[in-house]
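Let us work through a complete example step by step.
Step 1: write down the sequence.
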Amino acid sequence: MEFRQLGHSGFKVPVLCLGTGTFGGRGEFFRGFGEVDVKLATRFVDICLDAGLNMFDSADVYSGGAAEEILGQAIRGRRDKVIISTKATFTIGPGPNDVGSSRYALLRAVDASLRRLGTDYIDLFQLHGFDAVTPIEETLRTLDDLVRAGKIRYIGCSNFSGWHLMKSIAISERYGWVRHVAHQAYYSLIGRDYEWELMPLALDQKIATIVWSPLGWGRLTGKVRRGQPLPETSRLRHQVTVEGGPPVPDEHLYRVVDALDEVAKETGKTIPQIAINWLLQRPTVTSVIIGARTEEQLIQNLGAVGWQLSPEHMKKLDEASAVTPPYPYWHQRGFVKRNPPPV
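Step 2: predict the structure and record it as tokens.
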């Protein structure tokens, strides 16, 4: 397993990370992801550690906290062998302060996550989304306090826009507070919006990108095809789950799948393995979060590393998945001498 630097830090993480969105399966939304219990989760951890993958990502809202609880039990007795990342900001209760990134909410969220995970520190804690109601200074000062208290080791964010992230970095630097070293972002062959602003920012500010949903919300499994019914176990069969994910025009999806099919025939690799390997060759990508309902899926996803797509295969996939970016990005491409693409 290859390890890469976590942004502007001395910490290294594996290029693959196991996500726990399939753990628990509680509630209408997460039922569409999977219902992995403690026994299967423990098996997943065994398989991951044997393969050199030692990073596990969760969030307080995953199955109402059950995912963190299951992960905590699955790593019991081997906390020193794993890297834990988790997140908070989204609504976790009915109260007016059960949401957001206020000092009140974050202090409670971190303590609750520590209890559920059965640990006294979190390696990487991320804001799950941007809170425009809470002053950024309040959020960052709280995170700095949590790092100084030893409850968190590194901080990051998720689903921020470019200006959200850049303003946060600037405020941290102004006051000498801990700054974000990672951004957990959606990025896939059928969702390349990340490249327009967040990728150049990550290069400039040395922010590690941890990719969520590398298979485009379950669309790049090789089982979603033109003119065929959805697979029986797909999250795309759950309307609530579908609505919570990234939209993709059908024809764009099928065009990318056609290109993936061609590359699969030439490489002998599966469509998910190719989609993940493509991401690992993109600028700023430090780690890709993989998920699994079964041992078979997990083992297949682990096969995405240890090899590389050729430049010709990368070009074929780049061209098949390309779309016209919105303004001002399409305009900047007309001045490529001073706006070179990320490399």
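Step 3: interpret the result. The mean pLDDT is 94.
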